[in-house]
Write a structure and sequence with these properties.
The complex is a heterodimer.
Chain A (H helix, E strand, L loop, with lengths): L1 H4 L8 H20 L9 H17 L9 H12 L1 H19 L3 H19 L11 H20 L9 H10 L1 H26 L5 H7 L8
Chain B lengths: L1 H17 L4 E6 L10 E3 L2 E5 L11 E6 L5 E6 L12 E3 L2 E3 L2 E3 L2 E5 L4 E5 L6 E6 L12 E3 L2 E6 L2 E6 L5 E6 L9 E4 L2 E5 L4 E5 L5 E5 L10 E3 L2 E8 L2 E6 L2 E6 L7 E3 L2 E5 L3 E7 L4 E8 L7 E4 L5 E6 L7 E4 L4 E5 L12 E2 L3 E5 L4 E6 L7 H4 L3 H23 L2 H36 L14 E7 L2 E8 L5 H12 L3 E6 L2 E7 L7 E5 L2 E2 L14 E6 L1
Parallel strand pairs in B: 35-41
Antiparallel strand pairs in B: 1-34, 2-3, 3-4, 4-5, 6-9, 7-8, 9-10, 10-11, 12-13, 13-14, 14-15, 16-17, 17-18, 18-19, 20-21, 21-22, 22-23, 24-25, 25-26, 26-27, 28-29, 29-30, 30-31, 32-33, 33-34, 35-36, 37-38, 39-40, 39-41
Helix pairs in contact in B: 3-4
Classes of the chains: A mainly alpha, B alpha+beta.
Chain lengths: ~220, ~550
Amino acid sequence: MLSGLGTHGPHVSSLGLLAINALLFASAIWLLMRPNNHQKGWLWSLFLLAIIASGARILLSGIPNIMPVTILVIMVGSKYGIQRSIAFVILVTVSSNAVLGDGWWTLFQVLAWSSVAGVSAMFSVHDDEGNLSMKRLSFAAVWSVPLFSTIVSLSILDGTMSSLEFALYMFNGIPFDALHMMGNIFFAVWGGAWFERILSLQAPSQQRIVGEDQHVSIV
Amino acid sequence: MKRVALLLLLLFLLPFAKADSNRSWEHEFENGYITTQPLLIEETVFVRTSGFWMGEDRPQISAFEISSGDELWTYRSETTLQHDMSPLMFVDAGTGACGSWQNLLVVAWADGKVTALNPSSGVLVWEQQTEVNILGITGQLGIDEDRVVVPTRQGLSTFCFEDGEQLLRADFEEIGWRNGVLVSDSGYHVGTETGVLYSINRDGTISNTSIGEGKIRHVPIETQHGLLIHLQTSTGSTLYLNNSIIGNYGYSPAIPLQYGENIFLATSEEWISLSCNDMTCFEASKSQFHSNGEMSIRNLENDFLELWVPSNTPDGGWGVFNRTSLQRMHTTSFDTYTTAAPGFSTAAMALGNDMGVLQVTIFDNDETNEEESSFPLIEVVHYVLLLSSYLLCCLFFATGNKPRLWKTLTLFLLLFTVAAVPEISTQWSTLIEQDSEATWDDEWPEEWKDTQIVIIEIDGKENVIGGLSGQLNVYELTQVACESLGISTEYEDQYLGLYLLSFNGTEGDGWEFTLDGSRSNTGIVDTTIDSDSILRWRPA
């Protein structure tokens, strides 16, 4: 529907889409295979979160811009670094777009979430001891939206749109950005700690116990 | 665990948010609008487009598979003109005096052509040319056993279904517009733009009668009391039954629709239900509504019916009436001005509008009660959650439980934003338009204040003139401004009123205007202006 209406930029042929997805998938594999640090036990956590993010994005597609993907990207970026968070972004975007609709915009979504992951890798939402900071996460829930929105909106540019028209297009999207922001804050507050547990699943048990809040019992 | 439960609750709500008991698909035609009823025949939906196409584009007939939305074929006319408004006609295969024919999709065009297409492939079976007087055929065709009856621009022709051979021809003195033909036992009846009703016997003899000062733009309705005509006049419309006036109504009447003893009418002001008994036809009920095109009927179980009436307003949508009153408005995400009636089959519904968007909805098998399916479950759940989260916020605030207050507050704000964003986003875009266009420019002379000002953007350059006064509508003000600025204009009298074609010969993709920063719902003649209005013309 959206591609039919031309709201997401130029039409890409099936062959073009196949090439884009193949390239993205290969990049994700390469990023996952290439060892960059010796942190152990991240792979299953990352896959589990990718399944949660993709599934939630598909199920929540009825409400525009409400999805836990952005918050998860921020947390993965902060915890695992930019390399693995980009792989995470590719897996989530490609798999969920396979259901929601694939096109030129997939590239821009990957680019936008990767940028969010990159920034969160630099400005971590975890404190010096590696614990999740809800204040930083809530702040990230806000700043990530304009960054994501701006990059994704670039997909609409097809050479015929003036800068004024693009600015108006961006302006028209502000209410939906507000929705995205509220959704991010909601998922940060309600799901942040839970997501953090999954991210730390493979960490040594003592480290995990110390890092969790007082509601977690010590067995 | 609570978080998991909450997330699951949210996820479970989502399918409902999108839910509709039916599934649908859309197709947008890049150029042109849909102004005639889509036809649903077995597994195929047929639809035609009309103006305003530009450049190399042309109107087309397309066939789609109902279940998948896959395009089966498209037939494009390279020669037709704007305003292809004659509804499509599907003819079942048969045999008659003039021959045998296969299933046909008969299409009449604004360039006077009549084409018969193979509905399975879109291949041309036969074609005939009728006369053109600026335009060709715009009215609804009729079927008379083995032939198609065509109300041409200035007459009437019949063609054999088998090979398109002309069987009858009658010439009129006046031209017609959307003047559909009635096929009755006595012959054919068709109106004209001067209010004359022609009756043609099957042997070719012609008689005519003047109904009144006005235009007959529909298929005459046959009743037991004579023919019913809804005449479009300069002051509105007048309803005639057997040449006698039985009512006066609003402007731009829609095409009347007959169903048994009921006849349904509409204008820019109202929707009317007439009932015919042994004595006469009388107004049974009337509701405020704005419709100027076609209407259609959907038959439900237990002899219930729904009358679907397109709303020809910026908000669009379809009014769903029973025999006497409006029951509900059916809306979609792409609503706008609409004159095409919805097409129905037992399994699906097809909607088309002036944006050129076709939406086909496939009904679920268990959809038997429309009222049941229209229960706003999502809204109710949403507002219950919204209210609950608000009450919880109050509770946690009162008890000083800050962590839970913060959590509940985010839930409340999220639910609130979800509810508010659709309305806000609608107002948002209007805000930009008004702010950027309706403001006074400090560079303009002071003496222009409180006068009428016109800005015309041609090739990126603003041509501005102010200090005008006394003009009553957009057309008058534009004319005066253009004379002062030395800009030539070109207009065209179209179905929806006078339409500005070009400034200085530049047509582009059309021209649009805003008045004091707002788009108008009416045409340039009908849009009245104030003594200090700012009118802006720019390329569409």
